[in-house]
User: Fold Aspartyl/glutamyl-tRNA(Asn/Gln) amidotransferase subunit B from Pseudothermotoga hypogea DSM 11164 = NBRC 106472.
Amino acid sequence: MRFKTVIGLEIHVQLSTKTKAFCSCPADVFEMPANTAICPVCTGQPGALPVVNAEMVDYAIKLALALNCKVNEYSRFDRKNYFYPDLPKGYQISQYFYPLAVEGYLDIDVDGTTKRVRIRRLHLEEDAGKLMHEGDSITQAKYSLVDMNRCGVPLVEIVTEPDLSSPREARIFTEKLRSILRYLKISSGDMEKGALRCDANISVVDVEKKVSSNRVEVKNMNSFKFIEKALEYEEQRIKEALVRGENVEKETRGWDLSTKTTVSMRGKEEESDYRYFPEPDIPPVVVSRERIERLRFSLPELPDQKKQRFVQDYGLPEYDASVLTADEWIANFFEVCVELTKKPKETSNWIMTEMLREMKEFESEELKIKPEHIAELIRLVDRGEISIKTAKEIFPEMFRTGKMPGRIVEEKGLKQLSDEHTITEIAKKILEQNPHVVDQYRSGKTNVISFFVGQVMKQTRGTANPKIVNEVLRRLLER
Ligand SMILES: [Zn+2]
Assistant:
């Protein structure tokens, strides 16, 4: 282990409040026509005064509490000064000197062990607008165009300590964060819509030579997969430089999807470049202990708590519990199923394998499957009316059409054949047709029984009860 990778994340979360951070324009602007959700405040007109959105502060406090942060009763907004065409004010309102919350942590599960990732700070800020450059594929723009709709949309920025030691851990952390956002119902967490944006700082330490590389900032990783891919690429690039006895530039690089590499964007800004100073138009944010405690009390059961309860109450393995609780809808679906089946492990198996696979494949479609489907399927298997194999075969149809499994079995004639007499008749015929194989069995090569099992299954289109087929064949062969 010559190299040690050090990664810290800066994550921006778009809050799903009704209105923007400092004005009454709608905050959900994703599908709105350009420049239709704007006002003098969010476009920075002279004399317009921002007012803090209380819902935004509540959402951010909830997230801070879910991430085990210390919520500051006193925080304040500051101006981060820089010029860019999508920032009409010439500064962004953020929290620099006194953030809303500090010193939290999030535990992530890495290959069965728990890793604690510390959170340095969590603060509020506003989003900037959007630029569409000349030749943009959607707008066919002949000039650069600016859409101010996103100006002033509320964001929470979460900064971790550099506690992550692999690209995979960075991905797991971000996925877990999204799960929490969705449980809290404070953000869609959709990376492809920009509601969750992840930037990373990465450096590599050469443990043998006791030197550390410069820190590189990686941006534009707009999916969980790309977080891992981009950081893997960057990790490798830095290691190769260290092996050559060189160092990498301290800079900001972006993930380029077309070349699957990172490319240099600009030298990294220093914080002093932004000339932060207190926002004079907004009074400090003072939140009382009572308000914080009321919000703490309103938190739903979060993924980790739910996972513990699933292990304790249902006797599920930790792995099952974490898969099922990663998504609140799945967790609820599971609990309703178990009410009906009273069989937690079997229910979990069907949901974790067949159902999640189907859901992945038909992501965008409306789900027709209900807990009753899973319950009836398990009942049919338990009663020996269908085999596990048949159950797996009809699962996709049940999932896609919403037909009850009993009906599919009936329509397709897939009912399990458990009648010993019928199976014996079929088996006898097969034995008669293959006398030499029967001889092989009787002279000690008992494993040829699988040949006969296969033949019976073929003749019964897989509906014969395998347990009975084996018993019948053994009895016939050993007499
Ligand atoms: Zn506005």
Notes: Residues 20, 23, 25, 38-39, 41-42, 152 surround zinc ion (CB under 6 Å). The chain has a mean pLDDT of 89. Residues 3-291 form one domain.
